[in-house]
């Protein structure tokens, strides 16, 4: 820590919803002193507690005590040079230049706002302006200290941190706790002192499946001020954020890979540069759930445009609780007919189509059709799909080759992840390195061939291993090799869309293992989970739109003939406020059950195009894994649709809709329309719902009498 001194310059920037403020002192040290909603920005953080907007550590710079990425030695050497504000495509960009004079490093930090969305996107670029190589060991995309001041007597009871847990079969589960419950408490240091505790909450991921433990997000709420912040790291590889105390304040730093957690460092020759992965930060008046309103708008704003963003075609996929990766021509024909009968518009043949043997896990990679499964040729299946009025789709796992595949011996060494002289074996598959020209050439040819030969309009890209910390081929560190691959893979996806702009590509990684902002900025539809139980899928379905827009969230709808009516309706409702991904035993349902699915899909098609502009709401709060009742809503221009699930507990629940407080509201049961349901609208802004059976679910429409809800709060 350096002693504070007089402020000589103030930079105030943002839009009508979110703003930040930075100061420059007499020693040219830049500090961010405010970040929050524009109408509730608050007082500036004292200079003694504020930090710069980027944390930097170069090899040879002094480390602080402890493992935390704050007040690093490189950061302390940075000095402000200039700033520039420019208008860009309906928004604004702030660029700040700082220099690490002793090492000849230039740091260009850029913040961008789009329209009036309450989100700031942050990225930094480090340039070697010196005469000798520089090794970067850590550089953040975002850094701010001053969210909390321990001088406030109520801080321990009013400040909460929300962490998004995300695991196989149990995705999108936000757990919000007070800071002392996370181990952050006031140990007695003072604002003007030199010391802080060495405690931090560090959340991150290592490898090629970035969301197998957590979403690359976090959120902080100040209940006393009525303000919340949320951040998302937009990267498809290793990432990390941390929160800790800094003297009497609380800081957050966030970014992509680093040396300490991910074995990443990179070397810049003179004139070379390195750019961090983007981090987006939202700030709102309200609770944590409110932050997903501007994040939803922001995600739509930065996403690569595709017709599917607005069309929201209904997809049938024959994997989940269905053919389970064992397709044959004989098995597929009745499934295709049933999919068309209930209103599917796309049909995806899932895994197994390429293997003559049942145990194909470690032999994948050629991506040619099985002659045993399809003796008359695979095209017969796709012809049947088109004849049934659907677009043909196919599953593939383009990033791996099985260890027993003959192709594993044909591709060059640099086509694979290699560490310490050996190929990386991920659960019986080799990880392909998309920096390799041989990999790009091969996979371009594979995808182009499949689309041309089978007339495909839909692809599902799955990914079921983790390549670990990275590769030491053509890189100065394993983590640097991984980052290069991550970025090369995204560039390959971009080029695929350029060549095949009408083809829809669904992203998947063992369900929700790749629900990161970089992937979601490219794909119009995302697999959310591999959960097989519709009851356990409820909190996943209700929570998925914390990670992605509702029009991207593919939720399994997999009915079975043995389901009761309530179970069937619940299973269907799971998917109706996103992208219902049909599967299950559809061809085994009786006529009455098929009619129920068909009527729900017809209903969905009546409002699906409005989902692309709707905002998410949670009238019972964000869903908990074991909650007896869950509810998730979408606010449209003229009404609110809400899915309500009961898994147990009391027969009745009260849902909060503060946007409708004081209005007369018409409540309509949309699905299932013929089931017993009691509802009472309370003018204070809540809906009482009684469901006599558990488990069960309902979909309602709420419309303010004589008006829509567009005049109510939208962020």
Automatic annotation (TrEMBL):
It comes from Salinibacterium xinjiangense. Gene3D superfamilies: Aldolase class I, alpha-galactosidase from lactobacil brevis. It comes from the Bacteria. Transmembrane segments: none annotated. InterPro entries: Aldolase_TIM, Alpga-gal_N_sf, GH, Glyco_hydro_36. This is Alpha-galactosidase. One of its GO terms (biological process) is carbohydrate catabolic process. GO terms for molecular function: alpha-galactosidase activity.
């Amino acid at each position: 820590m350096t002693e504070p001194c007089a402020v000589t310059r103030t930079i105030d920037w943002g839009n009508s919803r979110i703003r930040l403020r930075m100061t420059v002192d007499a020693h040219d040290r830049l500090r961010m002193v405010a970040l929050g909603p524009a109408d509730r920005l608050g007082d500036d953080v004292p200079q003694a507690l504020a930090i710069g907007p980027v944390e930097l550590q170069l090899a040879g710079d002094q480390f602080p005590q402890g493992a935390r990425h704050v007040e690093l030695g490189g950061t302390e050497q940075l000095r402000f040079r200039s700033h520039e504000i420019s208008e860009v495509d309906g928004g604004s960009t702030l660029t700040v230049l700082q220099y690490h004079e002793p090492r000849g490093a230039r740091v260009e930090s850029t913040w961008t706002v789009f329209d009036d969305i309450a989100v700031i996107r942050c990225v930094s670029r480090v340039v070697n302006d010196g005469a000798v190589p520089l090794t970067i060991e850590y550089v953040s995309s975002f850094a701010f200290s001053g969210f909390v001041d321990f001088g406030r007597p109520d801080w321990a009871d009013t400040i909460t941190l929300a962490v998004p847990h995300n695991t196989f079969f149990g995705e999108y589960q936000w757990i919000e706790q007070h800071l002392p419950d996370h181990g952050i408490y006031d140990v007695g240091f003072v604002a003007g002192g030199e010391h802080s505790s060495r405690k931090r909450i560090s959340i991150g991921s290592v490898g090629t499946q970035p969301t197998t433990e957590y979403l690359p997000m976090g959120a902080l709420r100040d209940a006393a001020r009525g303000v919340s912040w949320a951040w998302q790291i937009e990267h498809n590889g290793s990432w990390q954020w941390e929160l800790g105390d800094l003297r009497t304040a609380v800081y957050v730093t966030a970014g992509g890979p680093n040396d300490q957690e991910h074995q990443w460092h990179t070397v810049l020759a003179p004139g070379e540069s390195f750019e961090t992965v983007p981090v987006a930060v939202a700030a709102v008046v309200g609770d944590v759930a409110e932050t997903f309103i501007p994040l939803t708008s922001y995600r739509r704003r930065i996403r690569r445009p595709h017709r599917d963003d607005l069309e929201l075609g209904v997809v049938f996929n024959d994997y989940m609780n269905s053919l389970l990766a064992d397709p044959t021509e004989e098995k597929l024909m009745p499934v295709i007919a049933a999919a068309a009968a209930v209103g599917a518009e796309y049909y995806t043949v899932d895994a197994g189509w390429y293997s003559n043997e049942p145990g194909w896990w470690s032999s994948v990679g050629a991506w040619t059709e099985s002659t045993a499964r399809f003796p008359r040729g695979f095209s017969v299946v796709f012809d049947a799909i088109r004849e049934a009025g659907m677009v043909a789709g196919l599953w593939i796992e383009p990033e791996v080759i099985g260890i027993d595949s003959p192709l594993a011996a044909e591709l060059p060494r640099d086509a694979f992840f290699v560490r310490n002289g050996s190929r990386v074996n991920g659960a019986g598959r080799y990880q392909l390195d998309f920096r390799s020209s041989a990999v790009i050439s091969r996979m371009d040819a594979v995808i182009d061939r499949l689309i041309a030969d089978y007339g495909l309009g839909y692809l599902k890209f799955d990914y079921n291993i983790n390549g670990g910390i990275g590769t030491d081929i053509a890189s100065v560190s394993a983590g640097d090799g991984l980052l290069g691959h991550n970025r090369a893979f995204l560039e390959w996806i971009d080029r695929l869309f350029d060549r095949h702009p009408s083809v829809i590509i669904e992203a998947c990684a063992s369900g929700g293992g790749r629900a990161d902002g970089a992937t979601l900025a490219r794909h119009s539809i995302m697999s959310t989970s591999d959960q097989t139980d519709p009851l356990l899928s409820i909190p996943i379905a209700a929570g998925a739109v914390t990670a992605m827009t509702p029009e991207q969230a593919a939720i399994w709808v997999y009915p079975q003939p043995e389901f009761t009516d309530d179970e069937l309706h619940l299973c269907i409702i799971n998917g109706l406020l996103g992208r219902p991904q049909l599967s299950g035993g559809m061809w085994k349902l009786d006529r009455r059950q098929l009619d129920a699915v068909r009527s729900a899909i017809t209903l969905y098609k009546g409002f699906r195009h409005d989902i692309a502009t709707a905002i998410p709401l949670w009238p019972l709060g964000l869903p908990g894994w074991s909650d007896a009742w869950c509810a998730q809503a979408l606010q449209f221009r003229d009404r609110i649709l809400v899915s309500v699930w009961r898994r147990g507990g009391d027969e009745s629940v009260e849902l909060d809709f503060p946007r409708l407080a004081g209005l007369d509201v018409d409540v309509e049961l949309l699905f299932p329309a013929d089931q017993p349901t009691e509802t009472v609208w309370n003018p204070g802004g809540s809906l009482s719902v009684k469901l006599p059976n558990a488990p069960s679910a309902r979909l309602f429409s709420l419309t303010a009498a004589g008006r829509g809800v567009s005049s109510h709060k939208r962020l």
